[in-house]
Amino acid sequence: MSAIEPNPNQIATLFSAASDNSDPVVMINLLKFDENDGAATYQQYAEAVQPHLDAVGATILYAGDASHVVAGDVDKAWWDAIVVVQYPSRTAFVTMVTSQDYQEKAHPYRAAALESTHLIATDPWPVGR
Prior knowledge:
4-stranded antiparallel β-sheet; alpha+beta
């Protein structure tokens, strides 16, 4: 399982992998909740993070449980839930997660809720690729 905090190399890669850091980025969050009320604590995080998402112009596109694996080499996903968020830019994402207000008011719920996570930045494909 992975850590829940990005390391400096991962943040640097987030910017270097982009053709334009001002383009929107969709972040896929694969979430493994802590066994001790992690799902409930993550709901507290969801409420606490919303003003921070609004402040940078981010939108939650999807949030839901991982009910079952349909195809793949495992019978059960290691993650419990998936959250998909679109940020107006990679800079907006980093601005949000590094702000003192976010770190004080939202991040503690996230840290308490998660056992593990994979946070994946995506780049769009042209249609018909």
